[in-house]
């Protein structure tokens, strides 16, 4: 285990491509020495194997000091970073990152971050024995199944190109690159509520798919357009993985201080309304059946049964972390009923795409790949979209 932690820490200390944020490469500015960083990673790994009140430990720790980050809720007395304390705080705060700092007195958790600058190192406990590190919107390393992986597609843009090139969908990036990037937040919320679910995207100008869907609950035309209108609202400050057949590009958007404050307040309100709507859409997956939307974000209905024959066939899988492409994979190897239903639906409706969230938080996307002339399944997407759950603040905010 010590050797794996050592490999993981080495990956975290490697130079990071800042892209649009500044210089081409910058050595990670980690506010911990190598020994403390190794200890924190080890604590997180062992905490990931714990349970409390039959609940698994999930959540994020961010390395920073109190003056560097706001807004945050600061503890009156810093809490020592121990396995029991990490477990207790993440059970209590699974969606709000814990703020961790080191020093002569050792590792300590000093508060809860309601948002954080994008250039901070984040350690996420993503499952039992699964530890992920990210910085600058990039996944740096993944510790999973007793091995350390350095993702070949470290951010959302390279992930989109990996998928497009592997599956022969290069033209899709241009055709659908302007789809609102926060669409994937529906899938993120489905991961959060722990029930899993199926999210089906159908082409807005085709109706042939309707013979393969039986709605339990459907919306009228005006209600369907509400989600579309909100989805095309303000994107300022909202970064996320979009569709683009699997993942889209990131969208990153002065007058007087008063004017700027008013504009930011209005944008914050719009973002809050949009996120609230998307959470409510995702909650529709809490009952059995699929949530169905068009690619231009019209919500059509939920509790939908996907209709297909009992045929069996082979699919192609693409690991979004390692880039490994496996052909001739049986439906039984994909997972349970949701995964097999999604594959059969896409095979019969090749212009549609389906996201499936399993109860353990895994996110897969099913799409038709012309190059393979068959169904392709992109797996391990959950390791990318978690990075976009919270608003980002720059250092000067």
Notable characteristics:
397 residues, alpha+beta, ten-stranded mixed sheet, eight-stranded mixed sheet, 30% helix, 28% strand, globular, disordered C terminus
- Globally, the shape reads globular
Total number of β-strand segments?
24
Largest sheet: 10 strands, mixed
Which structural class should the secondary elements be placed in?
alpha+beta
Task: Point out poorly predicted stretches.
Answer: 18-25, 177-182, 233-261, 387-397
Question: In summary, what is this structure?
Answer:
The chain has 397 residues and is an alpha+beta fold.
Give your account of this protein's structure.
Strands 14, 15, 16, 17, 18, 19, 20, 21, 22 and 23 form a 10-stranded mixed sheet that branches. This protein has an 8-stranded mixed sheet with strand order 6-8-7-5-10-11-12-13. The protein has 397 residues and is α+β, with helices and mostly antiparallel strands. α2 (34-48) packs across α3, α4 (156-167) crosses α5 and α6 (185-193) packs across α8. It contains 10 helices and 24 strands. β11 (130-135) and β12 form a beta hairpin. Helix content is 30%, strand content 28%.
Blueprint of the fold:
Blueprint (H helix, E strand, L loop, with lengths): L1 H11 L3 E2 L7 E2 L7 H15 L2 E2 L2 E2 L2 E5 L8 E9 L2 H10 L5 E4 L6 E6 L2 E2 L4 E6 L2 E6 L2 E7 L2 E3 L6 H12 L2 H7 L8 H9 L3 E6 L10 E2 L2 E2 L2 H11 L25 H27 L6 E5 L4 E8 L7 E6 L5 E6 L6 H12 L4 E5 L5 E7 L4 E6 L2 H4 L6 E2 L4
Helix pairs in contact: 1-2, 2-3, 4-5, 6-8
């Amino acid at each position: 285990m010590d050797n794996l932690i050592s490999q993981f820490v080495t990956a975290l200390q490697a130079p990071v491509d800042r892209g649009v944020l500044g210089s081409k490469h910058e050595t990670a500015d980690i506010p911990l020495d190598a020994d403390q960083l190794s200890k924190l990673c080890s604590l997180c790994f062992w905490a990931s194997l714990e349970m409390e009140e039959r609940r698994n430990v999930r959540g994020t720790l961010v390395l920073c000091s109190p003056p560097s980050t706001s807004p945050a809720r600061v503890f009156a007395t810093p809490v020592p970073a121990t396995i029991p304390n990490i477990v207790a705080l993440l059970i209590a705060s699974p969606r709000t990152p814990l703020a961790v700092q080191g020093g002569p007195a050792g590792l300590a958790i000093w508060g809860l971050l309601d948002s954080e600058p994008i250039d901070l190192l984040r350690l996420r406990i993503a499952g039992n024995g699964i530890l992920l590190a990210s910085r600058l919107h990039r996944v740096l390393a993944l510790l999973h199944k007793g091995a350390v992986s350095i993702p070949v597609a470290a951010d959302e843009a390279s992930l989109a190109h990996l998928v497009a090139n592997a599956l022969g969908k290069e033209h899709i990036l241009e055709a659908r690159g302007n789809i609102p990037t926060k669409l994937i937040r529906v899938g993120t919320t489905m991961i959060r509520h722990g029930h899993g679910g199926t999210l089906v995207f159908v082409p807005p100008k085709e109706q042939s798919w309707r013979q393969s869907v039986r709605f339990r609950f459907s919306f009228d035309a005006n209600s369907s357009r509400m989600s579309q209108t909100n989805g095309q609202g303000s994107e300022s400050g909202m970064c996320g993985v979009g569709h683009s057949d699997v993942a889209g590009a990131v969208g990153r958007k002065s007058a007087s201080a008063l004017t700027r404050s008013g504009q930011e307040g209005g944008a914050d309100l719009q973002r809050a309304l949009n996120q609230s709507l998307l959470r409510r859409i995702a909650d529709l997956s809490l009952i059995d059946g699929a949530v169905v939307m068009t690619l231009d974000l019209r919500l059509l209905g939920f509790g939908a049964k996907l209709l297909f024959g009992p045929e069996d066939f082979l699919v192609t899988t693409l690991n979004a972390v390692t880039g490994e492409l496996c052909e001739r994979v049986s439906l039984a190897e994909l997972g349970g009923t949701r995964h097999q239903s999604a594959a059969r639906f896409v095979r019969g409706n090749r212009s549609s795409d389906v996201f499936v969230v399993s109860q353990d938080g895994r996110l897969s996307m099913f799409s038709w790949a012309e190059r393979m002339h068959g169904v392709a399944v992109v797996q391990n997407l959950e390791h990318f979209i978690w990075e976009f759950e919270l608003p980002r603040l720059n250092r000067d905010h």
